[in-house]
Input
Amino acid sequence: MEISPFIIFLAAIFTSNIVLTNFLGMCSFLSVSREIESSLGLGLAVFFVLTFTTAINFVVYHYLLIPLNLIYLQYIIFIIIIAAFVQLTELVIERFSPVLYYSLGIFLPLITVNCAILGVSLFMIIRNYSFIQSVLYGAGSGLGWLLAILALAGIRSRVKYKYVPAGLQGAGLSLIITGIMALAFIGFSGIVVIQ
Output
């Protein structure tokens, strides 16, 4: 039975959220989530890169690597495609929003090594998704990552002015909040399963 692309899209946002259920892409997720504006910018960049690189990687895998029997090169090819697309995204952000470009700093080019982006392309292959399923899975994963980082940034901005014990300040509190958010997203897990 083939899973509907729309179900895959919704599941990638909620029940199989790439950052909150698979814990992929945590480094930039925790580091950039201090402010809502920078979180929104990085989240949109991740969404954009995830959606398009998943589509490109699908085409390259099925129409180049498989016919030429070069499947053993998939990791290298996927990373090259992701790096090129991140570079393009970085140039566009620098051109049209220099403030966002400088607020994201080193984390924008680090999208290249964000394991969530490579993970989505690999899950697409492992789960044998069609092109439409793959694109919607990439878009849903990007939207889920964006939703998660915005939620964490919103919570962190509210907690910033509250009393927090010294041992929990910084990364400790962020990890606790992320764990609670993961539990909330896992609460949706009985609705749709795509794994």
